[in-house]
Design goal:
The complex is a heterodimer.
Chain A (H helix, E strand, L loop, with lengths): L2 H22 L3 H21 L3 H25 L12 H25 L13 H11 L1 H22 L4
Chain B lengths: L2 H21 L3 H26 L3 H30 L14
Helix pairs in contact in B: 1-2, 2-3
The chains are: A mainly alpha, B mainly alpha.
C-alpha cells in the first residue's frame, strides 16, 4: 500500500469516526467540534482527489465560516441539556428501517446496477481548467449563487430583527 | 483510486447524517447532521470528478458549499426568531403547526 492510498484510507476512516461522534455525543459544543474535525478530514480527501481549490474552500468556508456560525448559535442560546421524554423504541425501529432501505438502495443502484465505462482520467484536473469552466461556461449559476447569498442575508436580517 | 470505495464512504457519511436527523432531538444537532449529509454528497461529486477527469463535478460541489452557507445563515435567523417566542430547542416541543 503506497502513501497515497494510506492517506485516503486514513482520512476516510477519520471522517466516518468523527461523523459518528457528531451525532453520538450529548453536548452540542462537542458535536460542533467533532463536525469541524469531520470537515477537515473530508478536506484531506479532497486534496487527495485532485480538488485542491475545493479543499481550501472546505477549510476556509466550512470549518472557518459555517462552523463559527453554528458555534455562535450554540453560545447565544441557553446551553442546557435538551431534556424531554426519551425516544420510544418504535421510532428507533422506523429509523433503522429507513436507514437500511436507503443503504440497500445506494448499494444496489450505485455499485451493482450502474457501470462506469469510462477509462481512468485522461485530463488533468488543475485549477486553471476549473476557473476557466467556472467563469466561462458556468458564469450564470455563479452569479445566481451570489443572488442566493444576498437573499439569504436579507432573510436572516428580517427574521432575526427585533419586532416592535 | 477505486470509485466504489469513495461511493461507500460518501454514502456512510450521508447515512450518518440521516440517522442524526431522525434520532436527535436538539435542533442545532439536526442542522449539523444536514451539513454532514451535504458533505457526503460533496465527497461523491469530487470522487466522480476525479474518476472521470471532468471538472464539472468540482463546480457543482462549489455550489453545494454556497447553498450550505445560505442554509446555515437562514437557520441562524430562524433559530433566533424561534428563541424570541419559545424557550426550548427540543423539536418535540415545536408543535405550533400541529393541526
Amino acid at each position: 500500500m503506497d502513501l497515497y492510498s494510506f492517506f485516503i484510507y486514513l482520512f476516510s476512516f477519520m471522517s466516518i469516526v468523527f461523523a459518528i461522534f457528531v451525532i453520538a455525543v450529548k453536548n452540542a459544543v462537542h458535536s460542533a467540534i467533532f463536525l469541524i474535525f469531520t470537515i477537515l478530514s473530508i478536506a484531506g480527501i479532497f486534496f487527495m482527489l485532485n480538488a485542491e481549490f475545493l479543499g481550501a474552500v472546505q477549510i476556509l468556508v466550512y470549518a472557518g465560516g459555517i462552523m463559527v456560525i453554528y458555534l455562535f448559535i450554540i453560545f447565544l442560546i441557553k446551553l442546557e441539556e435538551v431534556g424531554g421524554k426519551r425516544r420510544n423504541a418504535f421510532l428507533y425501529i422506523v429509523s433503522s428501517l429507513i436507514l437500511l432501505l436507503v443503504a440497500g438502495e445506494i448499494v444496489y443502484l450505485l455499485i451493482k446496477r450502474a457501470s462506469y465505462p469510462f477509462p481512468p482520467p485522461t485530463k488533468f484536473l488543475d485549477l486553471k481548467t476549473f476557473s476557466d469552466v467556472l467563469l466561462k461556461n458556468y458564469v450564470i449559476p455563479f452569479e445566481l449563487a451570489s443572488l442566493l447569498l444576498i437573499g439569504a442575508m436579507i432573510a436572516t436580517i428580517y427574521l432575526a430583527r427585533k419586532r416592535t | 483510486m477505486n470509485i466504489n470505495f469513495m461511493i461507500i464512504v460518501g454514502s456512510i457519511i450521508f447515512l450518518i447524517g440521516i440517522l442524526g436527523v431522525l434520532l436527535r432531538r436538539n435542533l442545532i444537532i439536526i442542522l449539523m447532521s444536514i451539513e454532514l449529509m451535504l458533505n457526503g454528497v460533496n465527497l461523491n461529486f469530487i470522487a466522480f470528478a476525479n474518476y472521470l477527469g471532468d471538472v464539472k463535478g468540482q463546480i457543482f460541489a462549489l455550489f453545494v458549499i454556497a447553498v450550505a452557507v445560505a442554509e446555515a445563515a437562514v437557520a441562524f435567523g430562524l433559530i433566533i426568531a424561534f428563541m424570541r417566542n419559545k424557550d426550548t430547542f427540543n423539536i418535540d416541543d415545536m408543535t405550533l403547526m400541529k393541526g
